[in-house]
Amino acid sequence: MTLSDRPAPGPQGADAAALRVVVGAALLDGRGQVLAARRSAPEALAGRWEFPGGKVEPGETVPAALERELREELGVAARALSRLPGAWEVRPGLELHIWSARLLDGEPEPLQDHDALRWLTADELDTVDWLPQDRFALPHVRRLLAGDVETDRTPRSHPTPQP
Ligand SMILES: Nc1nc2c([nH]c(=O)n2[C@H]2C[C@H](O)[C@@H](COP(=O)(O)OP(=O)(O)OP(=O)(O)O)O2)c(=O)[nH]1
């Protein structure tokens, strides 16, 4: 059972006030690859892989938070597309949501919080050491990737290796 199955907060909104969302991006390149990022901090999480993103600030929408985090952490412009099913507890009061996102401009770089980035195909999703909660999202990401190949034909914003 995921946290999405819980009853909605009561009319006072007390649960909602206590609950914070961290949003991760399944950032697609339009060619069937998704970006994974290796955390550099804190020490307990360093070396584990995640979907780049961060906590939604008070008063901010989830898509806006995602787009802001991708600008700050990776230096890219991206558009949040839609939320994947599920919500997973990171710790009490903090739950993880994953959204699909499209890279619009820029080449992702590990500017903040990460020390490595990898574009992964569906077949490569299991080749990195994901944070535990992120593993629950992988079946949804795999489905997303199956529908991502050549969905748009605009030039990729990250370079193709030359022979
Ligand atoms: N960004 C991100 N965080 C994740 C994922 N999976 C997962 O368990 N987490 C956890 C790691 C952290 O405990 C927490 C997010 O914290 P964060 O440090 O990335 O948030 P933030 O960028 O907003 O940083 P701060 O304002 O707290 O300094 O959620 C994921 O896929 N992406």
Provide a concise account of the structure shown.
With 163 residues, the chain is of the alpha+beta class. The chain has helices at 14-18, 62-74, 132-146, and strands spanning 20-28, 34-39, 49-50, 53-55, 77-83, 88-91, 94-105, 114-120.
Which key phrases capture this entry?
163 residues, alpha+beta, Nucleoside Triphosphate Pyrophosphohydrolase, five-stranded mixed beta sheet, three-stranded antiparallel beta sheet, globular, binds 8-OXO-2'-deoxyguanosine-5'-triphosphate
Could you please describe the fold and organization of this structure?
The strands form two sheets. Strands 1, 4, 5, 6 and 7 form a five-stranded mixed beta sheet that branches. Strands 3-2-8 form a three-stranded antiparallel beta sheet. Helix content is 20%, strand content 31%. It has a single domain, classed as Alpha-Beta Complex (Nucleoside Triphosphate Pyrophosphohydrolase), CATH 3.90.79. The chain is globular. The chain contains three helices and eight strands. A hairpin with a 2-residue loop joins strand 6 and strand 7. The N terminus is likely disordered. With 163 residues, the protein is of the alpha+beta class. The chain binds 8-OXO-2'-deoxyguanosine-5'-triphosphate. 8-OXO-2'-deoxyguanosine-5'-triphosphate binds next to strand 1, strand 4 and helix 3. Its cofactor is Mg(2+). It comes from Streptacidiphilus fuscans. Belongs to the Nudix hydrolase family. Its EC number is 3.6.1.55. It catalyses: 8-oxo-dGTP + H2O = 8-oxo-dGMP + diphosphate + H(+).
